[in-house]
Specification:
The complex is a heterodimer of chains A (157) and B (112). Chain A contains 3 helices and 6 strands. Chain A is of the alpha+beta class. In chain A, strands 1-2-3-4-6-5 form a 6-stranded antiparallel beta sheet, covered by helices on one side. In chain A, a hairpin with a 2-residue loop joins strand 3 and strand 4. Chain B is of the alpha/beta class and 112 residues long. In chain B, 40% of the residues lie in helices and 33% in strands. In chain B, strands 1-2-3-4-5 form a 5-stranded mixed beta sheet, with helices on both faces. In chain B, strand 2, helix 1 and strand 3 form a beta-alpha-beta unit. In chain B, helix 1 packs parallel to helix 2. Chain B is globular, with a radius of gyration of 13 Å. The chains are: A alpha+beta (157), B alpha/beta (112).
Chain lengths: 157, 112
């Protein structure tokens, strides 16, 4: 699943997962990320928020993208390199326009039971970009930079 | 997600632990709150002390439960939020919607 860095490359971690569209598979996506984070030294707080964003992205791909059709896949690419975590999630759905998703913090929307997933992704990651996946579905790429934490030993700053 | 329910006077305390996430915990919250209302208990304290993670579906179910209980003339309050669950409610400004208290005692007192 995950590839350890080779001897002649800078240390970086990469993994690719293909999951069927079942909510219980979100746990597999989470476990792969946690494993990569542990190996890269990504700390507890960073890890918690990245996991939260990943779960939202995969849940959206399964529910809204693939409409829980188990014959459709969700593809996840994880890269941790140079203190940057990059996650790309692709579905096989019909695509959508993220600009059409209403702001969940607008007072008129506060009591809506849905519509917060993308907002959480944007809150917990430094960068979130949607595009069309090669197969026509939605691709979302999320980036979080692992700035040195004040307590972490060995930080440069 | 695991849950335990108990009644203290007229208040139903629903103690939740683990993950409240899509496809499992989210549906469970609704069932627990519906059961409280069916049992005639419309003052509900959701104890989130043992909750390790919640996603937008879990939050959405809590909001839906809040609306259902309020419409029935009841009250739903939250207690014992971890700092991270608090952050999750804070960023979506739901902290302004829910009545949030620190302890069981404070939660019970808030219904009086």
């Amino acid at each position: 699943m995950a590839t350890p860095p080779s001897m002649d490359e800078p240390p970086s971690l990469h993994a690719h997962l293909v999951l069927t569209s079942r909510f219980e598979n979100i746990e597999i996506a989470e476990r792969a990320l946690v494993d990569l984070c542990d190996r890269s030294g990504c700390d507890g707080d960073h890890r918690y928020w990245i996991v939260t964003a990943l779960r939202e992205a995969v849940a959206n791909a399964i529910r809204h993208g693939n409409r829980q059709d188990p014959s459709r896949s969700v593809r996840i690419d994880y890269t941790i390199a140079d203190c940057v975590v990059t996650i790309r999630v692709e579905d096989e759905g019909a695509g959508f326009d993220p600009a059409q998703v209403p702001d969940p913090t607008d007072p008129a929307n506060l009591l809506r039971p849905c519509g917060r997933g993308i907002f959480y992704m944007r809150q917990f990651m430094n960068q979130v970009e949607f595009s069309r996946a090669p197969g026509g579905g939605t691709a979302v790429e999320m980036v979080r930079r692992l700035e040195p934490q004040t307590r972490s030993p060995g930080d440069e700053e | 997600m695991k849950s335990e329910i108990r009644d203290v006077d007229e208040v139903r305390i629903i103690e939740l632990s683990g993950k409240i996430t899509i496809g499992s915990g989210d549906v469970k919250i609704r069932e627990l709150v519906d059961k409280a209302l069916a049992d005639g208990q419309s003052k509900i304290l959701l104890d989130l002390g043992g909750v390790t993670a919640i996603d937008s579906s879990g939050i959405g179910e809590m909001v839906a439960c809040y609306t259902t209980v309020t419409k029935r003339g009841g009250q739903l309050k939250l207690i014992r939020l971890s700092p991270k669950i608090n952050d999750i409610l804070q960023v979506t400004q739901l902290i302004t919607v829910f009545d949030v208290l620190d302890t069981v005692q404070e939660g019970l007192a808030a219904f009086k």
